[in-house]
Structure formats: structure tokens, C-alpha cells
Amino acid sequence: MSDWIQQQFVLEWPNVWGARNWIVPACLLGGSVFLLVMWAYRSIEASLGLKLCCAACKSLAVLLLAAMLVEPMRSESKPVPGANLFAVVADRSQSLQVADLNETVTRADKLKEQLDRSIPWQVRLGQEFDIRRYEFAQQLVPVGDFQSYTADGNASAVVNSLTSVAQRYADRPIAGILLFTDGNATDLANANIDWSNYPPIFPVMLGSEDTASDIGVQRVTASQTNFEAAPVTIAAEIEGKGFAGQSVVVELLDEKGESLQTQTVTDIRDDQAFSVRFQVKPTQRGVLFYQVRAYAQSQQGLFEDASKSNESTLLNNSRMVMVNRGQGPYNVLYVSGRPNWEFKFLNRSLAEDDEVELHGLIRIAKKEPKFQFRDKDSNANRIFTNTDDEKKEQVEQYDEAVLLRVGKLEEGELAGGFPKSAEELFEYHAIILDDLEADFFTQQQQSLVQQFVSMRGGGLLMLGGMESFVEGDYHRSPIGELLPIYLSGIKQQPQQQEFALALTREGLLEPWVRVRTTQEEEQQRLVEMPKLRSLNAVGTIKPGASELLSVQTSQGENRPALVTQRFGKGRTGALLVGDLWRWKLHQASPDNEDLEKAWRQTIRWLVGEVPQRVRVEAVRLLDDPNHPVEIAVEVNDENFRPLDNASVTIEVTTPSGETLTLTAEPKDAISGQYAASYVPRTSGAYRAKVIARNPDGSEIKQTETGWVSEPAGDEFFTLKPNREFLETIARESGGEMISLSGLDAFVRTLANRDIPVVEPKIHSVWHTWAVFLLAVGLLVLEWGLRRWKGLA
């Protein structure tokens, strides 16, 4: 308001003199009259104050009239009527359907009253500007008027709407944008918008920060871990207003709407968010959906009967979340130099894990030198001596190791022993080597193992034993280079003394290394563990590796027991203990499942980040007003190199059960990357089955993903207007915040603002009623004072 008064005051002063040649006569005349008036009042008998007041009034009036001889004029720039554009943009999202505290009408009703073309501020605005009217929800829509305005949109694309207006009139003279909105944009993904490149924006904030009663589930997230059967943690953030001191019930429901878990949060506070966590162990695989909903305990049953609710809206009381349990099964190849207890307990631990399949390759007899002298006619391995299989052709020969294949193997799998090609080895996600010397592998196989970790991204874990690490001659071998510890060429037998495991500082920070819930319980578990007696001697750990478990020798020396590191795309680990099985055999309680849990968590860590041949991710593009979902697919060949010319089809199942087929196209000219976009039209859970095929048409793999579309939840994320956002765009664009009641005053000041197309306007100051009235008023005041005091 102070700026407006200042502008009006400046307009009263002339800045152009039309008759400069009259300046000297006007000054002489004015001076003469002034002197004459002063001489005349000097001779009058009256008080000094009265004479000065009367003389001043008459002198000012005469001087003002004398100044008219110079023809004072005011030159200023005025907008050319109709030459400048002015955009009126109205938000029609459904978040305006709420009523504020102590209000009987909604925000949308208040706005509609101001959008009538016959209202004074619109009439005045139309006299000077070419008005362009728009409505927006998901996108900007031009309208002739706002007669059919309804707040029923599922989104508030504030940023994209303003950008569309700015781009549409980038080469046209636009004086500003009048924006009616609550500021709760659903497309505010980019926080670094340069609003200075936009026309002046004048936001009119709808709604009050003092909102009515409401409970809203703001966000729901799901996280999975790679340990203990991968429980799913579902976290919900909830905020309430108008229910201070009351209790809120939070429910977790499955896809069928059946309640799984319920929690009650007591004594909540207004405008203060609180979190609720649920832990579930899904029994099904694939893409699953869960729903979290919250309501006041005093209003139980409001979802069945909305009349029981006194909330502003129920559209934000629930949210869904997607959980993908379809990454497995993970194939783990266990290779051992001899049957042992370690495999027994490892196999037993993973038997109950549907996500991990353990395939064992166990050597039960070593091979003999190829040219060793033999005193028998049979060429079979000695393990078959004096058996019925000795003379069979399919049995292993004396120069071949005898291997036992264990697990759910397909026909022909591992028939030739350890894989000899990348195509065969890369079918696995992790390799475990136990008590096996380096000579078991050919040089080509060792190089394949290195490629398996570095290129394929697989996991490698070597267990301690009599023929592992240094004792297995892995020094300066391709497999030895993968290990997170340095090996020397000097063999030492595993140390036969008692050791106690201890968690290092880094080990305490790794969830998969811990077995118990708290640090105190974990320390107690380590104290109760049976002592171990077999530890491989190695050198120092490599730079970048992490020592997670350690032991202390009888000499007081700390030695590493479990070390891990990243290698290329994969990860490797070295468990230097060779008799972890003692943990199970010598524990106090036979019902103790700590060893099984530890093995499951270790294997989960080993395979947790191993890439699949076909990877898919569904991402919502928040910067697009329609919020499409981009389904990005990465396809690799058998050697896990990006595969070009693949065929990728996507079958999308909508919440109504309808199935649509999309074709993914190459993405951004990146090898092996494909993508397709889909715009959800209805609320609910979506599933997408991705089928990738080789260039010859053969199927590579099928995988699933999913997403949730909840435009109402995004719209009603908060009921408070986003004043900070609106003030930012107004300040940075050169505009200002306007109130609904201040629209008339705002429109009157537009002519005095920075307008693109203006024309000069010159008017005589004498022709303004204010100047004439001032001159006459001074003379009347002087005459009135004289008459009052009897001086006339």
C-alpha cells in the first residue's frame, strides 16, 4: 500500500513545462503579488499568527495560479489498451474442495466468485489488457471464461502450467500472470527452477494455514533386507490436525483388504508427524501390494460409513506400497575338496529359504597323476576298486577327480564338473569355495571365476580349511587376486589352538553379520559360542577391504576372521575360520538356530546385489504433469554384456484387470537399455510383466515389477497452502503475493508497473481537479479567516 501512495503522490508533480517563455513573467508576477500581499497584511491590525496564515493562503493561491502561465504538464507512460497480454490461471485441483477452519464454503467456492467476468477487477483488467484465461490440473487448458469451473482435477501441475504460459508467450508482450492456487504442486520435482526467466507472477493464495480437522498418511515406504528370510519393513508417516491428545489407529492391509496388523498411537499432537512401522514376512513371491490406513480411534468405522467422520477429507487417510519379491531364486554353487560338516549345516540352513538354491559339487576322491605306474588293468579311479562300477565306462578315470553333485540340479547340470564356459558359470549368482586347492581348477576356469565376479557381478566366498588360501596355493593366482586379503607363498598349517570370535567396529555396523537384536545380546552370544580351533594364517587385508570378524590368539595377537571387499561389479569374502560347524555341535541348546541364521544372512549378503540378465525398474516421472511411469529395462547377454537388438515387450495389468501390451524401445542410444512409458488413468495397483527375447526370438527371461498410482494421496499430501513456494516464485519472477480481497487495489496499480508495451500520455496539471480545487480552497480559506475575524 505504501508503494501505491508514493506512486500516486509522484503523479501530482509536473515534469514537462509547455510555455517555458513565460517562466520569467510568471516569476515576476508571482513575486510582485507576494510582496503586495505581505505589504497589505502588514498594515492590518490583527494577531501575527492570523496575518501570517491569511498571507500564506493567498500567496500560495496566487503563486499556484501564476505557475499555470508556464503550462505545467505531466508526461507518463500508460499501457496501450489491448496491446499487452495478461494471463489469469486458475487451479482446479480437487484439493480446493476442502473448507478451512470455521468456514462454511470451500476454497473452490471462494475462487469461483472471483472468476466471474463481471466482477469489477476483471472488468478493469480487461480494459487495459488482453486477458488470456486458463485452468489447470494435470495440464494447462485455455478457457473463454470460468463459468463451468469445477475443482475436480487429480493433480496440481503448477510448475508445468506456469512454464507452458511462459513458453507460449515468450515472444509476445505479457505483463504478468495472475495465479490462483493453494501452492501444493504435485509436479515440484525440480527444486532449482530459475523463476527470473518467467513473466512477473502474482500468486493469489487460496486457503488458510489454519485448516480443519484431518488425519493424513503422507508417505509409505517398504524396505527389504538380505538377512533372516528377508522380512519386509513397511514404514508409514502420518500427520494429524484437530485430534490432539487423542489416539490414532493405523492398520496394515493386504491386497484383498484383509487386516494383517494394527497399531494404536496415543496422545498425538497437531501438525506433528509420527511414524509407524510394520514387519511382515510374505508367503508369496512376485509383486505384492500393501495398504496402510489411519483414522481416529473415536471414529472407528468411518471407511464403511463416511458420515461418522468429521475430517476435511478421507482421500488422504490411506496409501499403498509395492513390494517386489520376485528377484530369486538365487543359485549358489558350493565347491568343496572333501565332504565335511560345514556343508551339512550350510545346506540345512538354506533348505528353508525359497529364494536361494544351493548346488553342491563335492569331491570325494582326488585324481591321480596322468602317467602314474599302475599294476592293474582297470583305469577307474581307486574309489571304485573292488566295486561293481569299477569296469563301467561312465565312471571317472584314475586321472579324474570323483565329484558328488548335490542339490536340485537340472539334467546335465555340472555333469562335466566345475563349469568351463562363461555361459554355464554365469547362470549362478555366487560361488563358495571350501577346503579346495587352486590346482583343482584349470587356468581358464580361474580366469572365468575372476570374470564371474568382476564382469558378471557375482559373489565369491572362500571358507577356511587345510587346502584354502595359502595352503591351497592361491598365491598369485586369478582367484587369489579376488580375495580381500594378501596371500604369501609360504605355507603354514592352520593354527590348532582355541579362538573366540569377536565383532569389529565395522562388523557391528553390518546387519548381516549380527545375529541378535542389540549389541548387548550380540556380545553375550559371542561369549557363549564354543571356541574354534582352525584358523588360516594370511597376510594383511587389502586397501578398501573391511574386517568384520576377528579372533585373538593365545599370544594376544588379533587376526582377521572375516574380511570382505568390492571387486569390479561383484563382492568377495574370506572366512578364515575352518571349523565354524563347532558352533552347532557344541552349543548349549540344540534348539539354538544362531548358526543357521548366520549362514542365511551371509548368503543373502553374497547374492543380494548380483545383477540379473534382465533388470527392470518402474519410475514415476514427477516433472511431467501427467506423471507417466517409465518402465526401464536392462538386458544383458550370456556374458552379461549389454545386449543390442533385443525384443522387449511389457504386459501392463491395470487395477481393473485389463491387460495392455507395450513395446519397449532403445533408451537414449545406450546399449542394452530399453524403456516404455505408461500414463496411469485410474487409481490403484499396477503390475507389469516384462518379457525379453534374443534377436533370434528365443526367450531370455520374464520378470515383474509394479507401481502404485494414488493421485488423491498426492493432492491431499497436506491441506495447508504452500505459502513459502508461492512467495518464492513471486519474489524471483518480479511479482508479489496478492490476497483475494486485494484484487481491486492490485489491478489499479498495474498501469504504474513495468509493462512491455506502453504509450506516452501528456496531460495538463491545471486540467486536474485536484490542482484547481487546491487553488480555490486556499482563496476561500483566506477569505473565510478574514470574515471570521472581521478583517474584510
UniProtKB/TrEMBL annotation:
Alphabetized Pfam families for the sequence: GATase1_like (PF07090)
Highest taxon of source: Bacteria
Occurrences of domain Putative glutamine amidotransferase (ranges): 413-607
PANTHER family recorded for this chain?
A: BLL2462 PROTEIN
- Name of the featured protein: Putative glutamine amidotransferase domain-containing protein
- The organism's taxonomic lineage, starting at the top: Bacteria, Pseudomonadati, Planctomycetota, Planctomycetia, Pirellulales
UniProt organism field = Bremerella cremea
Keyword terms: Membrane, Transmembrane, Transmembrane helix
Q: Does the keyword Transmembrane apply?
A: yes
The transmembrane segments are 22-41, 48-70, 766-785
InterPro entries on file:
Class_I_gatase-like, Filamin/ABP280_repeat-like, GATase1-like, Ig-like_fold
